[in-house]
Amino acid sequence: MATRIIRAACPHDCPDTCALLVTVEDGRAVKVAGDPDHPGTQGVLCTKVSRYTERTYHPDRLLTPMKRVGRKGEGKFAPIGWDEALDLIATRLGQIAARDAQAILPYSYAGTMGLVQGESMAARFFHKLGASLLDRTICASAGATALRYTYGASVGMDVEHVTEAKLIVIWGGNPIASNLHFWTRVQEAKRRGATLVAIDPYRSLSAEKCHRHIAPMPGTDGALALALIHVLIRDDLLDHDYIARHTVGFEALRERAQAFTPARAAQICGIAADDIEWLAGLYGRLAVREHLPVAIRLNYGMQRAHGGGQAVRAVACLPSLVGAWRQPAGGLQLSTSGFFPVDGQALQRPDLLPGWPALPRTVNMSTIGDALLDTGNGAGRPKIEALVVYNSNPVAVAPESAKVAAGFAREDLFTVVLEHFRTDTADYADVLLPATTQLEHVDVHKAYGHTYFLANNAAVAPLGEALPNTEIFRRLAQRMGFADACFTDSDEDIAAQAILRDDPRAQGISWETLKARGWQKLNLPAAPFADGGFPTASGKCEFYSEAMRRDGLDPLPAYVPPYEAPATAPELASRYPLAMISPPARNFLNSTFVNVDSLRATEGEPHLDIHPEDAAARGIEAGTMVRAFNDRGSLLARARVTDRARRGLVVGLSIWWKKLAADGKNANELTSQRLTDLGRAPVFYDCLVEVERADGVVSAPAAEMAAAP
Ligand SMILES: Nc1nc2c(c(=O)[nH]1)N[C@H]1C(S)=C(S)[C@@H](COP(=O)(O)OP(=O)(O)OC[C@H]3O[C@@H](n4cnc5c(=O)[nH]c(N)nc54)[C@H](O)[C@@H]3O)O[C@H]1N2
Ligand SMILES: Nc1nc2c(c(=O)[nH]1)N[C@H]1C(S)=C(S)[C@@H](COP(=O)(O)OP(=O)(O)OC[C@H]3O[C@@H](n4cnc5c(=O)[nH]c(N)nc54)[C@H](O)[C@@H]3O)O[C@H]1N2
Ligand code: SF4
Ligand SMILES: [Mo]
């Protein structure tokens, strides 16, 4: 038996971007393990990806191109050949482009985070075509925009050092579920005496293991952060030297924070003022008086409300006020993606756009429901006539799902989906194309939770007739007659182009070295901002942002309340008094893995966590089927009566495939298409609902998928 070990990388949208070792026996991948030598991965994978072969060799894998034969959404398809499929697509796209290429829209996100199978050949193809651009806002753009204005880019501390920290604040994140390798380090820090604090409306798996859990109402973090700033300034827990040399706008920030007394913020957030005094006191004292490292792990949970961007701005000021950056184990990490010297121009070739540097119209992916239902007004806003979806499952993951599904159901919309499985979105495809998984193609990866580049070597040959995304767009480009040399680049050519080799951070790193070694760390100082040097225009951390003022925004960190809360929408709150959040489930990755039986079995069925008092008031007991609803829709789930959810909050861990739920719906039936204050991002956790008993409904997940396809 021929056994080989292949160096690969986890493709998923997870900050850990693990280094994988894939065992291949006689051409079949039999085991996917973590690389023990990679300092982040440490030989351990999450449950999901340690089951990767179960997903890759799943009996439901799409293995041939298919053409729709049933109604849209019904999921009935007949196999066709690649030539027929690609001819059909090229002909339709060609006809539409001849009138107005902007009626064509790509829709993609981070099904794979690979730089090659993500936006490389696909982007080149749509740029050359002159299709509408997609504003990829669905996850990180509120915080990324806030960090860009504050630090200059998505940069922060290296959590490899966090084991040395004496205080770790986990703010809006649940690392046991979604950032496992960071949690391992936090445990080590705890053993060495660190105090752990969670800021989260929900007592998550991680929050329950912290020394203190502060549970503000969703979307109120901006007020909390401004109150922490207020106390640090009031009590002079400040690093005056760091502030003077490496920040802009301290006086203006002081004035802004003046109004956010702990009492006022406590009232806004629904917490005790003492929590704020205690946290600010500890954070400031450890950093300023005792010169000990204090770290903040800021995450996405707190960005998914109206004020998500400004809340990140406010939190991002904290480490600069106390000089936490001076130490490798201090500072803040939201994302490290801005450290990577990646050649986006080479990968995506925006210069291929017909009017470059003028841009075609841009469509926000977070409001795809409205965009598809917009009949257009001709010039500048043509109706979307064709949609090409890859690396994403919008019918399950995009907000206000009923509108998304109605848009996808339009008879006059031509939809192409590149997928591994017949997802909720795939069911609406006119042409469904089988894509390869990470074990079957080549890629190169950056990360957003560490600072290593990784290579993904192909472990096995493509299953069935599946093709990499790149090859599908390469063949389409050929059919469209696109003659530019970049359309013949191989995947390895593209991987090599991805790394900006002149950049000192990438010194010694190339595709050749990477694919042999598997991973290489960027050259960065251990404490990147110990002596300032932020990549802003001023080179400083900008409490006051002149760029924001120029862009017509509030130049100072602010508290922007949720759209849907008693204070801002009293009438709505009287009808829908409960705030609903739908953060990631541990055993799914967004909607990926929901169809892997062993993982779905662990999650059970869609649940809704509700506080005992809120449950009692509604006659709800543990295990009751309940209906959560608002003006946008409704959702069935099994109640878990638990004080993990604070009073006034319900929690439905997500993101279920709609067709695998009893009622064919998931949390996005209830979420809105409103956008955050910065970054045009969705507000998944800014969502009021009411919950009632759904008597008579006893069914477990629908059996439909058992027979699929
Ligand atoms: N297992 C697993 N891992 C994942 C994912 C997954 O689906 N499953 N998804 C991946 C992706 S795409 C992303 S973006 C990241 C997300 O990463 P995170 O943002 O870290 O997501 P979670 O770990 O669920 O943490 C979100 C936490 O924020 C809390 N929260 C909700 N609203 C608020 C609020 O207003 N304020 C505060 N302070 N907290 C709030 C939630 O209760 C939840 O516990 O995880 C990635 N990793
Ligand atoms: N209610 C609610 N909704 C949310 C969130 C939430 O917390 N609550 N989280 C939001 C967040 S943070 C995010 S990032 C989005 C995530 O939304 P998406 O990026 O759409 O993520 P997934 O649901 O994992 O879907 C990715 C799809 O890509 C496919 N795929 C993977 N690799 C490849 C490949 O190489 N080629 C092709 N063609 N396909 C591939 C997978 O099979 C999968 O079906 O969801 C958002 N939606
Ligand atoms: S999903 Fe995250 S934790 Fe799991 S293997 Fe991938 S990178 Fe590692
Ligand atoms: Mo995300």
TrEMBL record:
One family name in Pfam for this protein: Molybdop_Fe4S4
Organism: Cupriavidus malaysiensis
UniProt xrefs under SUPFAM superfamilies: ADC-like (SSF50692), Formate dehydrogenase/DMSO reductase, domains 1-3 (SSF53706)
Top-level taxon of the source organism: Bacteria
Residue ranges constituting the 4Fe-4S Mo/W bis-MGD-type domain according to the UniProt record: 3-60
Keyword field: Iron, Iron-sulfur, Metal-binding, Molybdenum, Oxidoreductase
Record flagged with keyword Nucleotide-binding: no
Family the UniProt entry places it in: Belongs to the prokaryotic molybdopterin-containing oxidoreductase family.
SMART domains given in the database record: Molybdop_Fe4S4
Protein name: Molybdopterin oxidoreductase
Cofactors demanded by this protein: Mo-bis(molybdopterin guanine dinucleotide)
Xref: InterPro entries: Asp_de-COase-like_dom_sf (IPR009010), MoPterin_dinucl-bd_dom (IPR006657), Mopterin_OxRdtase (IPR006656), Mopterin_OxRdtase_4Fe-4S_dom (IPR006963), Mopterin_OxRdtase_prok_CS (IPR006655), Prok_Mopterin_Oxidored (IPR050612), YoaE_C (IPR037920)
